[in-house]
Amino acid sequence: MIPGAFDYHSPSTLEEAVALLARHGDEAKILAGGQSLIPAMRFRLAAPEVLIDINRLEGLQYIREENGYLAIGGLTRESALEESPVVQQRYPLLADTARVIADPLVRNLATVGGNLAHADPANDHPATMLAYGASVVAQGPGGSRVLSIDDFFTDLFENALASDELLTEVRIPEPQPGSGGAYIKVERKVGDYAISAVAVQLRLHGEICSDVRIGLTNVSAVPFRATEAESCLEGKALSEEVLEAVGQAAAGQCDPSADLRGSVEYKRDLTRVLTQRAVTQAIARAKGGSQ
Amino acid sequence: MSRHEISLTVNGAEAKGEVEARLLLVHFLREDLDLTGTHIGCDTTSCGACTVILNGKAVKSCTVFAVQADGAEVETIEGVATEEGLHPLQEGFWEKHGLQCGYCTPGMILSAKHLLAKNPNPTEEEIRWGISGNLCRCTGYNKIVEAIQYAAEKLRNAETEEARQEVSA
Ligand SMILES: Cc1cc2nc3c(=O)[nH]c(=O)nc-3n(C[C@H](O)[C@H](O)[C@H](O)COP(=O)(O)OP(=O)(O)OC[C@H]3O[C@@H](n4cnc5c(N)ncnc54)[C@H](O)[C@@H]3O)c2cc1C
Ligand code: FES
Ligand code: FES
After folding, report:
1. pLDDT-flagged residues of chain B (< 70)
2. Residue nearest atom 4 in ligand 3 by C-alpha distance
């Protein structure tokens, strides 16, 4: 299928890109990896009149620790995350996530910024970044601002960026001593979106869990945190009863819809099980010292 | 809507065209350049039959606009063999029966080529993971994995041989 016609711009500076966004407003869309937008345009689910291709912008692809966080350039490809030593060594939740997003061909183009900006509850990074308590940097004509990921996802496919803003960076707080995280996803076949997936990040003080954050994938219309499950674990040591309560709370708080990937009941129960597995793994990693 | 003059390198040769912005790279390759070895197997970015190497990375050419490839280097299946003959990957698919209908084969070979460029000595699991964006309806994948293992070994041996000759030269 062929997308509808549009005007194409490929600015070479960020200022130019933002000016184009400001000029064309809601008629324009940014083209990053194109791996969500182009399929949507081919199905005519999206028909932007103007595309602003940001692939020729310099300096938006990097992964580096600075000022107490891991900074990831908005145009960083998923494949770069997969291959990054700092991600592999210090951010296991992110490393888990990067390798289960789509397939290697898609990951060679797909970007971290696009994955979040698309605000698709089926995408994997929203849950991960919610669990990390990440923030994003938005660049507009008047300068940049930092948004908490907790305020970023506003509706299905809707985010908190203004129509003339571009997501330029994602910031993940550097792991504190005793941190651990994990992402566990079940999909129908390799390369598919999740039936359900769970991201957990926490800290251990002795046996006691703190700073527990749990993000869920594809079991709600808007990416969200399983706050009730977080509360069941916060300040407690892991036990069978606690683990059971955490799983039940996540299953209760999610709001999946029935589709080809399964019934509501199945998805809820899968979310319960995956939450328990991800919590167990995050704790094991926290104990093992690998963040 | 907007039309663009593009100029890129395809299989080492310059290719030019005037394209509508919405033209997909796969259509440019097949219809404007007559390089029909790059296949189209789906409408949903799912199958990988359209895989080409774009600036060194294997991508689905049905999910990139031709205009985005302006100035880029593209390699398609037509560019894989050399004057000396088949590429070790092509030879491997032949020797190990890595294809039946052949529809997925060009994409498989280009994905495998990128994989071996990054990782010359992949494990079986890494090969399976590396081609997981390419669907095959016929083979059950085992013979494809063997074909890639054959090529990996041959390429490694060729490199060792080259290094040896350099040392003795
Ligand atoms: C077969 C297939 C399977 C997939 N499976 C998964 C999966 O399992 N998990 C998963 O997470 N994803 C999956 N994806 C989606 C993929 O990861 C997308 O690439 C990603 O969702 C969007 O990133 P992109 O860079 O391609 O963005 P694009 O498609 O270019 O853009 C997506 C949206 O975000 C906007 N946008 C992009 N970048 C910015 C920016 N910097 N600032 C502001 N707005 C921006 C665009 O305007 C557009 O509206 C899959 C895709 C395919 C084709
Ligand atoms: S034709 Fe199926 S992924 Fe491109
Ligand atoms: S050989 Fe027929 S699809 Fe792979």
Report:
1. 169
2. B136
* CATH number among 3.40.50.720, 3.10.20.30, 3.90.1150.10, 2.60.40.10, domain B3-79: 3.10.20.30
Nearest CA in chain A to B118: A83
Closest-CA distance, B38 to chain A, in angstroms, reads 15
In a shared domain, residues A72 and A127: yes
Q: Give, for ligand 2, the residue of B28, B45, B108, B132 to mutate: max count of ligand atoms closer than 8 Å to Cβ.
A: B45
In a domain, residue A1? The reply is no
Contact B68 A108 (CB under 8 A): no
Check whether residue A37 and residue A69 sit in a common domain. Answer: no
To the nearest whole angstrom, how far is the Cα of A7 from the nearest Cα of chain B? 5
Domain B88-168 has CATH 2.50.20.10: no
- What percent of chain B has a predicted confidence (pLDDT) above 90? 91
Q: What is the pTM of this model?
A: 0.96
Residue-wise pLDDT tens digits, A183-211? 999 999 999 999 999 999 999 999 999 99
Least CB–CB distance from A109: residue in B1, B4, B59? B59
One-letter-per-residue 3-state SS of chain A:
CCCCCCEEECCCCHHHHHHHHHHHHHHEEEECCCCCHHHHHHCCCCCCCEEEECCCCCCCCCEEEECCEEEEECCCEHHHHHHCHHHHHHCHHHHHHHCCCCCHHHHCCCEHHHHHHCCCCCCCHHHHHHHHCCEEEEEECCEEEEEEHHHCEEECCEECCCCCCEEEEEEEECCCCCEEEEEEEEECCCCCCEEEEEEEEEEEECCEEEEEEEEEECCCCCCEECHHHHHHHCCCECCHHHHHHHHHHHHHHCCCCCECCECHHHHHHHHHHHHHHHHHHHHHHHHHCCC
Predicted local distance difference test score (pLDDT) of residue B86: 97
Instruction: Identify all chain A residues contacting B67, using CB atoms and an 8 Å cutoff.
Output: 8, 10, 53
pLDDT at B164: 84
Whole-number pLDDT of residue A165: 97
Residues of chain A with pLDDT under 70: 289-291
- Same domain? For A93 and A114 the reply is yes
In a domain, A2, yes or no: no
pLDDT for the residue B165: 85
A291 domain residue, yes or no: no
Ligand 2 midpoint to CA B14 (Å): 25
Best probe of the A interface among B65, B110, B141, by most A CBs < 10 A, is B65
